[in-house]
Amino acid sequence: MFSRLRGDFPILDVRVGESPLSYLDSGATSQKPQCVIDTFVEYFQQRNAAVHRGAHSLAVEATDAFENGRIAAAGLVGGTPEQVCWTKNATEALNIVALGMDRASHGFGGDDAERFALAPGDSIVVTEMEHHANLVPWQQLAASTGAQLRWLPVTDSGELDLTDLDTIVDESTKVLAFTHVSNVLGTINPVDRLVQRARAIGAYVVLDACQSVPHMPVDFVDLDVDFAAFSAHKALGPTGLGALWGKSELLDALPPVLTGGSMITTVTMEETEFMPAPQRFEAGTQPVAEVAAFATAIGYLTEVGLDNVLEHEKELARVLLDGIGQIPGIHILGEAEDRIGTVAFDVDGVHAHDVGQYLDSQGIAVRVGHHCAQPLHRRFGVTASTRASTYLYNNVEDCTRFLTALAEVRPFFGVA
């Protein structure tokens, strides 16, 4: 089945110089099937209009496309459409939660928002493997409110060290924010155990699901998280679109941080009343074509089956791990058993950027750098790594081409 899917992605026919393209950078952004590209173009050709505003036929069609996308997203991650709030990316979604809590901590939002207020003596807990998008906002919230920022460490195998979970996440903890799947290590974290601890002490759970939603079945209701963020472009959809998911009663109580048109009920010269979610968090003109295209991407993923995607990636991960392990002078960052098809590594004597350039010369696209996770790289004693990340359109041949080229890197630079 997965070999057949490759024909749906026109970019895979691109050649890099004289080499075919092996795209192993889906952790950064995924490629798009032709049906998603067609939906994006078709929207502008036949349906383009402002949503929720006009009474003419185009406006009605545009609004239907926009709201049908919300329905599709809810079907992908669980809950109801009203729990899906569109943002420009997952980073914005996570910031909306942190900044909303910051506003609540400084008296905004009224009585309903008081539940989110933090103060000195409270704590916020993250993990050492977080993407900066799920670390920096919480650093800022701690600095603004006087709360203490703590974190769960990472083991040598690339898993969360939960030995001191009950001590780190204690009665002072108001927020536990963590990634479902590491964007560097590929590790799938134990959401159930972390949520169970948060529930025991009454903390809010914020889940970064950017690397899980595209690669595996995810249901935020079953996971019992309070807020979650994910993005379209990592799940076959377009760029410029993310989503904030939350429990309805919490979304309606969280003070908005982006204000303006389309998210209000009443405005006077003195004050404003805000709409409930999701419109509460959707000020201004929305990315309608992107939402329509993402709905098509969701339909594509649903037809393939995310359980099948995860099984396929686990097989490719094993090919990568076994193959890299046989190449001298290369050190894998974390080797957790429960993982998606993402593998990061360090090459002795060769900077990650040079590794990436050599692989690119062979038509193999990978990510190099710190992957917006500098603390995690420091944990493993490196400043940068090379990352290969697979998706449903990759196959064993991609992995084999990558491994063959990787084995040539150190000899090419004269350090073998």
Automatic annotation (TrEMBL):
InterPro entries: Aminotrans_V_dom, Aminotrans_V_PyrdxlP_BS, Cys_dSase_SufS, PyrdxlP-dep_Trfase, PyrdxlP-dep_Trfase_major, PyrdxlP-dep_Trfase_small. Gene3D superfamilies: Aspartate Aminotransferase, domain 1 (3.90.1150.10), Type I PLP-dependent aspartate aminotransferase-like (Major domain) (3.40.640.10). Its EC number is 2.8.1.7. Residues 23-402 form the Aminotransferase class V domain. Transmembrane segments: none annotated. Its cofactor is pyridoxal 5'-phosphate. Keywords: Pyridoxal phosphate, Transferase. It catalyses: (sulfur carrier)-H + L-cysteine = (sulfur carrier)-SH + L-alanine. Belongs to the class-V pyridoxal-phosphate-dependent aminotransferase family. Csd subfamily. Catalyzes the removal of elemental sulfur and selenium atoms from L-cysteine, L-cystine, L-selenocysteine, and L-selenocystine to produce L-alanine. This is Cysteine desulfurase. The gene is sufS.
